[in-house]
Please model this.
Amino acid sequence: MSEPNRSLNCPRCSSAMEPGYIIDVAYGTRAVPKWVAGLPQKSIWTGLKLSGRDQIGVATYRCRRCGYLESYASG
Model:
């Protein structure tokens, strides 16, 4: 997972934002969410078909003052 190479300020209150991530929890596992190219296609076995699709980790920034979250899929 990569993050934007710049210092971010909150678009709502202009305070500093700190890097972090949101977790996906499923069946006792934890993972960083990923952005997937294209529209979702259902799969009977796995829920969604992902074969051959680009997947990029999502970095999330949180405003220290107001709590606003902003996510980026840069990779």
About this structure: The CA atoms of residues 17 and 63 lie 4 Å apart. The chain has one domain: 17-72. The two ends are 7 Å apart (CA to CA). The mean pLDDT is 88.
